[in-house]
Amino acid sequence: MAATIESLLEEISGVEDPTEELKCLKTALISIPISALRDSVSGQRFNVIFSLLNSNDREQIELCVDILERILVALSPLTVSQNYRAELQGGLNHPNETVKILALTQIGRIVEHPEAATEVLNNHDILRGVINCIGEEKMAVAKQAIRSLSKLSHSKPGLDKLFQSDLLKVMKDVMAKNDIIRYRIYELVVEISSVSPISLGYCANSGLISQLLGELTGDDVLIRATAIEMVTTLAHSQHGRQYLAQQGIMDKISNMIRGAETDPFSSLYLPGLVKFFGNLAIMDSPQQVCETYPAFQNKVFEMALDPDPAMIGVALDTLGLLGTTVEGKQVLQKTGEKFRSVLLRMSKLASSGATELRVRSLDAIAQLLTLQPEQQTEDLLALTESWFKLLSDQPMDMICNISTQPFPELHCGALRIFTAIATQPWGQRLMISTPSFMEFILDRSTGQTKEAKDAKFELVGSLVSSSTAAEILGSQHYIRLKTYLREGPYYVSAVASVGTEGTD
Question: pLDDT value at position 43?
Fold first, then answer.
């Protein structure tokens, strides 16, 4: 096969229009498994394919990119860096986006390889080319450039090169092009900062994080909304949260929530502020966050009762997020009547209204009601049961009605609520005392989509795994549930076909 590839390369270099020969080479390469391809292509030079990229013929360029992708992935990053450095650098400046992405992808492979990375770290022009690609119009090119630079920053030499050489000025020059590109650089900086306290230190010293934090209180509300998303991502790491706290950002965002009441444009950035604290509460402590920044919790309740669907949606997601932890459940319970009125609103939203809000309400309710077996103390079981009963005079009937509506996402949302209460003894007692409920669970004809079958299977699994289910549901139901579980989510019972004499 290596001889075939060699002869095809010779043919390609000897013809004026190499399209057919390129197609043959592509077919030949695809027929070889990647594991065997390395032996077929190592030692051969593919400069002729790279040279054919310098063309206005789109088909020719695409064939060359397909061939090079196949070849280069079979070669080690070190081989690529030693033999095709100049070609990759040329690819970064190519007018075709697929060529740029090919070069950036290979540079991403090289910088992950300790030995090969040196070849790129010592090549200032390549690194400058990668940074300039962040300023490209095509988002796919910019994303690949961000990925490659992010990988480069996983080593100290990479961090030194990016932040302690004139490449930092190249980054700042690219940033200055427009708002969109500035935020792409912020995305890169946040990604690098999240890796470790050391990488955060480099980014902070560069002044780029302070610049991002300054955008939080800028005049442009759309820029403010994007900045808060970036800062939320930075808060995902513990060292990121510590840094933000030291810079007084939590207090600043809390004050922004308070000040939002008098800003007619606050609806554009307020959801982001609430999401920031919602994520913070889950990563640190719901109680601490809600007590330290009461403006956050008050705003979530206020948004849940707001007529604006965008506000309601964020409030539902945040309440669901808080409700995933025991501490979060207790914080919500402490607010008494405030939370009860929000829960009633969630129940109304789940029963009627726009489908998207109904689904988000059902998911939030399911999260609020979920209690892992090890969390099932008497007090917490009483809490989840009281919340379930608040949903309606007949909560089981209400959720059953939602589950029978002809919308797969509502059907699955209702099943997730049943799954949440299925491991709790009070939930099992309600199930067995609701007429036809066990038949509904065991009936495979309800919910024909894959998602519905998976959701039903999860519900059955939750019941079977509970230590109290066999006693509460009765052995007959429990055995049938175990059989359902054993048969799997997509089991179809065989239907006997009856042949009639004299027919074909």
Answer: 63
Q: Which residue, 375, 374, 368, is CA-closest to 395? A: 368
User: DSSP string covering 146-199, please?
Assistant: HHHHHHHTTSHHHHHHHHSSTHHHHHHHHHTT-HHHHHHHHHHHHHHHTT-HHH
Cβ-contact 230, 190 below 8 angstroms? yes
The residue among 349, 372, 376 whose CA lies nearest residue 362 is 349
70 close to 37: Cβ distance less than 8 angstroms: yes
Instruction: Report the C-alpha gap between 105 and 91 in whole angstroms.
Output: 11
Q: What is the number of residues in the chain?
A: 504
Q: Which of 397, 495, 489, 497 is nearest to 444 (CA)?
A: 489
Q: Is-contact 321 362, C-beta < 8 A?
A: no
Amino acid at 473: L
Q: Which residue has the tokens 């945040």?
A: 318
* Percent of all residues in the chain with a pLDDT value above 90, rounded to a whole number: 77
Separation between Cα atoms, residue 129 and residue 466, nearest integer Å? 58
Handedness of CA 109, 114, 116, 121 (dihedral sign): positive
CA neighbor of 265 nearest in space, from 303, 232, 225:
225
| Amino acid at position 170, single letter | V
**Whole-number Å distance between alpha carbons of 40 and 22:** 17
Q: d(Cα 179, Cα 185) in Å, to the nearest integer? A: 10
Q: What is the pLDDT of residue 41?
A: 74
pLDDT at residue number 1: 53
pTM for this model (two decimals)? 0.82
SS3 call for 497: coil
Rounded to the nearest integer, the mean pLDDT of the chain is 91
Write down the residue that tokens 């309710």 correspond to.
Answer: 365
Tokens of 213: 């934090």
Contact present, 305 and 345 (Cβ < 8 Å) = yes
* pLDDT tens readout for residues 163-216: 999 999 999 999 999 999 999 999 999 999 999 999 999 999 999 999 999 999
pLDDT band at 265 (very low <50, low <70, confident <90, very high): confident
- Report in angstroms the alpha-carbon separations of 125 from 87, 90, 93, 167, 170: 12, 10, 11, 10, 11
Buried b (16+ CB within 10 A) or exposed e, 130-158: bbbbbbbeeeebbbbbbbbbbbbbeeeeb
Amino acid identity of residue 40, one-letter, is S
